[in-house]
Amino acid sequence: MDERLPIAVLPLVVIGPFLMLAIVPWVVRPLDRAAKARQRPTQFTIVDFLCLFVLAQFFTALIHSIRPGREEEVQEWVPYLLDVYAWISIGLIWWKCAEIMSRAGIDKPWHRVVLLLFVLPVTAVGPLSPFILVIVAAIGMARFSSHVALGLTMTLMVAGVTAGLFVSRRLIRRIVAESESATDAAAIIITAEEARGGEREELE
Questions:
Q1: Among candidate residues 123, 116, 91, the one with its CA nearest the CA of residue 24
Q2: C-alpha torsion sign, points 39, 32, 30, 104
């Protein structure tokens, strides 16, 4: 296997993060705009905490399932250090995401599940995907029998992240639109009730 292959993907480390950091704000912009416009109070639900538990378990299992060709190459404490890093990172991102959802008026449980379990991981992993590709290339040198298999795997990873970002954009726009319709309907009901209350006071 050609040892220069990981070097061939190193430009992704320079170009990829800037590209992804330009795409991710475009993906989450509708949600951010809704949060700034509505300014609803921050609240956390049991669904949010269940999603946090699922995310922590998923990334912990992912960390402990990725192993190089030889076990002695990795110190025993490294996976646990990565666990702590993943938990802290996921917790902070989860907290910020739940806060923005609340401010944007996203109240339906299934909307919050979609945002936390799909949109959040995709937008969080997006900027890191170039570094992940380099790691995959380095580990794949010992696992893949040909450059074609390794190249196909990396291409599928790039296509998956890109497709996930565009799907996330569509989901966010749909969820924000549905929550806006629900908010407008609630506002109309409240206004009608206030008008009825005013009419009753005038009659009395």
A1: 123
A2: negative
Domain residues for 72? 5-203
pLDDT at 146: 59
**CB distance 11 to 131 below 8 Å:** no
Look up residue 127 and give its DSSP letter. G
In angstroms, rounded to a whole number, what is the distance separating the alpha carbons of residues 96 and 194? 35
How do residues 95-137 score in pLDDT, each as one tens digit? 988 899 989 888 889 999 999 999 888 887 766 666 666 665 5
The three-class DSSP label of residue 75 is: coil
CB 169 within 8 A of CB 27: yes
Number of domains in the chain: 1
Q: Is the pTM of this model over 0.70?
A: no
Nearest to 11 by CA among 131, 161, 138: 131
- By the 10 Å C-beta count (0-12 exposed, 13-18 middle, 19+ buried), 99 is classed as middle
